[in-house]
Amino acid sequence: MDSYGGVGWRGRVSRGMVPLLALHVANEYLRLGHIPPVTSGLILTNTLLFLRPGPLHRLLPSINRVWFNPHLIFKNRDLRRFFLSAFYHVNEPHLVYNMMSLLWKGIQLETSMGSVEFASMVASLLALSQGATLILAKSLLLFDYDAPYYSQFSVGFSGVLFALKVVLNSRPDADYSVVHGLVVPSKYSAWAELLLIQLFVPDASFLGHLGGILAGILYLRLRRSFSGPNPLTLLLGGFVKALSWPLRFLRSSRGRLSGRGRVGRGLADAGGVWRCPLCTFDNSEWLDACEMCSTARGTINNRNQFSVFEVRQRRLQRFVR
């Protein structure tokens, strides 16, 4: 999230970096053969809300009406500010930085867990991160420290991104991460990024980012406490099945889908993921080659045929992209 201390601020649109975002998305599509639908939909939504082309400029509320402001949300019970503020950005660098991060995290998470599960997780993390930020701002009133945070205006998707980072780095094979050039244990990478961003970008919303980290931790603990399926996932799954049955009928006559990787059945039916023996990245069953290091699936039976240096380099590719 980026923050601001007043309502009258308007972001300047330079329209210079959005094409770079589009180029990066196109490059990932050419490399992988597909971009997961929920990830691409979120990127498109955030970008359209920022550019506001054609009639959308008149239909969509302005940024001044959706700033995340704890005081106004509590006073007016304003759910529009609570939810929509996450999808607005103050300028192009803010948008592009967040969407590049979403592309990287979304490809890994959505590919491994499936689109419906990923969509339900994003929705849950959105509500949890915004709620955590609201509670943190309200709690500061007890210490008579309300001015910097309780009256602060902020927008952006970074709270959800911090939560996704916590979930992504909770995997057993996530040992180390590179955070702005620093190699840190993955379980501390979100905290390190929180401090570094606040150090170099003082106007960033500290509470918004902290709320995202706490939301990610809470989500993981809730998932571990309840072994059953996520009710939101079941709801979204039923809705998607109802809408997609014509496509399933058309695809039933074909044994392949566009993009790299054989598809004879759905991801859930295929068992989910396979782990690259070199870089240990969990890949979708749809892919025939590792998404991170391009090692062909099933071609390596003995890791000793590669030098220790080459194995280390291929594993590090996961963190430097």
UniProtKB/TrEMBL annotation:
Example of a GO MF term: serine-type endopeptidase activity
Record's bilayer topology term: Multi-pass membrane protein
Alphabetic keyword roster: Hydrolase, Membrane, Metal-binding, Protease, Transmembrane, Transmembrane helix, Zinc, Zinc-finger
Subcellular location: Membrane
InterPro entries in the cross-refs: Peptidase_S54_rhomboid_dom, Rhomboid-like_sf, Znf_RanBP2, Znf_RanBP2_sf
Any one of the GO CC terms: membrane
Keyword Protease: yes
Superkingdom of this protein's organism: Eukaryota
Gene Ontology annotations of biological process type: proteolysis
RanBP2-type domain sequence ranges: 269-299
Pfam families registered for this protein in UniProt: Rhomboid
Main location: membrane
Family to which this protein belongs: Belongs to the peptidase S54 family.
PANTHER family: RHOMBOID PROTEIN 2, RHOMBOID-RELATED PROTEIN
Protein name: RHOMBOID-like protein 14
